[in-house]
Amino acid sequence: MPLPMNQTQDHEADDRFRSLLQKAVRRGHTHLVFTVSSLLESVGPKEKNWLRKRAVIITLEECWPLGADLLFNKRFHSKVAALFRAARSRKHKDAAALAALALAFSRGDRTVLHGEGEEDRAVRLLAQAARRPEDFWKWIRSQPLDARPRSLLDQAFRFRHIGKPSDRIFAQAAAYLAATDGLPDTEDSQPSPQDFPYWIALDHHTRQGKFALKTIARDLHIDLAQLEWVFFHFASGVFHDPAPSFWWDRYVRWRFAQVGIPQEEAHLLWEPAEQQLKEVLAEDAHRLHTEVYRWKMRNRERIESLQTKVRLFIENREEIGRGQRTLF
Predict the structure, then answer these.
(1) Domain that holds residue 144
(2) Distance CA 76, CA 310 (A)
(3) 81 inside domain
(4) Could you give the number of structural domains in the chain?
(5) Would you say residue 11 has pLDDT above 80?
């Protein structure tokens, strides 16, 4: 059953549910991933197509080694299977962090560099890759690799045009890490024991979040960029069961320095802001939670059907992989 939205609500709903889906993956709430994915499918072709493409980007951003196993067919549930696997896996954020640093450097921000070490070379190389992607792919695909890193590189190359130009660097970063460091093992996580905090989905990617952040920054006399970053660091960007990550730690240190907050003192800014953000967003968060819950209650069979399709798809991955070459 489609959501009862009118035309003026569509864009607002898209932003909220899109943001909610990635946060559900990030925090390991697999049941919410199924519900929101099914909901987005019901809205219409625009949201369904968005999720198809976003599944690649979210996988590489939240657990990049799973990029080696990005097998799809033309069915919607094959993309949801990728999101489900990312949600239930331990999070590996190196590709996301290296990509973010390289993208900043490609735009002229030299503060991401530490000196002339090997790590800075990686940032410089990925920044060049963002500007000259064809040269990067030609070079990286010529590297001799073992089967597993080669699989990730092939998949990253296959999806190199997915998303906006700023999204495509995730595939390049994953390919670079696979070629230079190999692939860490991926592990399943235990489901998150906490209830999902719906207010964190209303971040700066949504109309409600933008309004709340601007309001609180003004009221508390906080720089907006600082508030947006601590909201991400302490709330919307929190991920379940993180694996050790050199690049993520470096990225976090750089972002704190960039916005001018000592990392060890950030909680002093966040604690009063968190309470006010929760209060400002309480009504919208309750509305979002209620909409999702009511839709879930009306569409339990649809959600259960999606879960079954995803389970069968994952169980038959080997057979699907043999038959799949160019389907998406």
Answers:
(1) 94-180
(2) 10
(3) no
(4) 1
(5) no
